[in-house]
Write a structure and sequence with these properties.
By secondary structure, the chain is an all-alpha fold. 64% of the residues lie in helices and 0% in strands.
């Protein structure tokens, strides 16, 4: 007698408790690995094991999900590079360089270097997602403000000027690492940042940027 091989049960599709977190977890993986525009609602609900109806009960739009996806990077500690600025076990000058230390691990995924999630989202949001673009701009301005505050704490006279330079190096390293799928550029970026920091610290007190 021919026997049939039992099939694995299909994933349940549901809502209720935990649905929002499952959607956010799916977005965290798919948006970062595939891209925002390449990830449709169908892929999100399938990965999260929820219905389309449940999705829209949790998020009024895909753009609302994108904002929450990015906000999670600010609140759950995922952006360890930026959080180096708040370390209490390092002097201010070392904190400015420490932002480069976790980049290699943060940039890696199982298949390729993906870069900064905020930068990636900004590229995809250009012209089509103004609210998302504004959220990203606010985050980057806040990062620049934190760099300037730490630079001033380190004794840099033109703290804002150094902050802008370090931000350029940091963002450039992220972008080049993603473009070339190569995290070795992070070492070069840190070395360049060290030169900028040394020069800024050597400026006389009467210097004005």
């Amino acid at each position: 007698m021919k026997t049939t091989k039992p099939q694995a049960p299909a994933p349940q599709v549901g809502g209720g408790r935990g649905a929002r977190e499952r959607i956010l977890k799916a977005a965290g993986q798919l948006f970062y690995e595939r891209g925002i525009h390449a990830t449709g609602i169908a892929a999100l609900v399938e990965a999260a094991h929820v219905s389309t109806r449940t999705f829209y009960q949790q998020f009024e739009s895909k753009n609302a999900l994108i904002e929450e996806y990015l906000r999670r990077f600010e609140t759950d500690g995922a952006l360890q590079s930026e959080r180096q600025l708040g370390r209490e076990d390092l002097p201010p000058a070392e904190r400015l360089l420490a932002i480069f230390d976790p980049l290699e691990a943060m940039l890696r995924s199982p298949s390729a270097v993906r870069g900064c999630p905020f930068h990636n989202a900004a590229v995809e949001a250009a012209g089509g997602m103004p609210e998302v673009a504004r959220f990203i701009q606010q985050h980057k301005r806040a990062f620049l403000d934190r760099l300037a505050a730490v630079a001033a704490e380190a004794g840099v006279v033109d703290a804002r000027g150094l902050a802008r330079q370090l931000a350029v190096v940091y963002e450039g390293a992220n972008a080049l690492a993603a473009t070339c799928n190569d995290t070795d550029v992070i070492d070069d970026a840190r070395a360049a940042a060290a030169v900028l920091l040394k020069t800024a610290l050597e400026q006389p007190d009467d210097h004005r940027g």
